[in-house]
């Protein structure tokens, strides 16, 4: 904690200009904010107003989309539940969903990344095993089946790894270039990576096969 009260943090975020989002993107951003709030302050220490304020929307929208604070908590309790909505999106809408997830996370240092919450939990081995099982189910199995094409499972797992690493750096490490970059510029690069992993044709077009080992260096 840095001494900033929940309500003060929410009010500061609420003062930021609201970004126009689709209903899908708004739900994803609310889930992300809720996951961070519940992970940092627990159920009792988190209010619907705080979550809505982090996203820059009215609290009534949280009730409209999720019904209640308890329902939202249950929705984001496990990693599998956090990413379950991703599987309901058309493949072409996945970039929108992921960008909302990454750009919707609070970046003011007041929130613990959900994965860090798992790694720091008392039953670490069990929690990590559950996290691995959830991600295997969502990405390695179900998303990979939807993507199809060459190396679908590898691409799905790389997408998950890249997304988690990016969100961790954005929220916990907060390097200067990432912190100062406008959302529009970040989104441009995010979408480029997502498109490459979702569609192998983009990778094939940009990287001709050489038959060599990418780790090799020097002349032979």
TrEMBL record:
Signal peptide coordinates: none
Domain of life: Bacteria
Keyword Protein biosynthesis: no
Keyword terms of this UniProt record: DNA-binding
Segments forming domain HTH tetR-type: 24-84
Pfam families in UniProt: TetR_C_16 (PF17920), TetR_N (PF00440)
Chain intervals for the UniProt region annotation (Disordered): 1-21
Coiled coil: none
InterPro entries on file: Homeodomain-like_sf, HTH-type_TetR-like_transc_reg, HTH_TetR, Tet_transcr_reg_TetR-rel_C_sf, TetR_C_16
DNA-binding region residue numbers: 47-66
UniProt protein name: TetR family transcriptional regulator
Organism phylogeny: Bacteria, Bacillati, Actinomycetota, Actinomycetes, Kitasatosporales
């Amino acid at each position: 904690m840095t001494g900033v009260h929940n309500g003060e943090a929410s009010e500061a975020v609420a003062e930021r200009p609201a970004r126009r989002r689709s209903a899908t993107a708004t739900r994803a951003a609310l889930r992300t904010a809720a996951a961070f709030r519940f992970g940092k302050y627990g159920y009792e220490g988190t209010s619907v107003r705080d979550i809505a304020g982090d996203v820059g929307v009215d609290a009534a929208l949280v009730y409209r989309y999720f019904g209640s604070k308890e329902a939202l908590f249950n929705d984001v309790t496990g990693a599998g539940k956090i990413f379950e909505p991703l599987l309901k999106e058309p493949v072409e809408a996945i970039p929108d969903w992921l960008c909302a997830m990454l750009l919707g996370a609070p970046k003011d240092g007041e929130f613990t990344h959900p994965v860090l919450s798992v790694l720091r939990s008392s039953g670490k081995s069990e929690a990590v095993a559950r996290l691995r099982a959830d991600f295997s189910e969502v990405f390695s199995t179900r998303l990979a089946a939807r993507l199809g094409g060459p190396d679908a499972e590898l691409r799905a797992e790389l997408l998950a790894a890249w997304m988690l690493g990016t969100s961790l750096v954005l929220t916990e490490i907060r390097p200067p270039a990432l912190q100062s970059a406008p959302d529009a510029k970040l989104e441009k690069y995010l979408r480029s990576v997502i498109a490459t992993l979702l569609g192998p044709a983009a990778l094939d077009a940009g990287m001709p096969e050489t038959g060599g080992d990418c780790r090799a260096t020097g002349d032979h």
